[in-house]
Amino acid sequence: xxxxxxxxxxxxxxxxxxxxxxxxxxxxxxxxxxxxxxxxxxxxxxxxxxxxxxxxxxxxxxxxxxxxxxxxxxxxxxxxxxxxxx
Length: 86
What we know:
The protein is mostly helical. 22% of the residues lie in helices and 0% in strands. The protein has helices at residues 36-44, 58-67.
């Protein structure tokens, strides 16, 4: 009897960039920024094009991306924790 073959785990590279526009990579049509290595990764792999931010500011959105939960559920609801504006 042979052992069943186990498929290798997926090889995932998650790149999170703050304040990047949708057309800031060459692979998406940028004529200003040169991003040959990221373009090659996108060409040879998979791209994620239909994402939505869970909050209008960066810190809570990053917390949501990294945990898979709403920002309020992990206690990150402000731009910089503990510093309210106004």
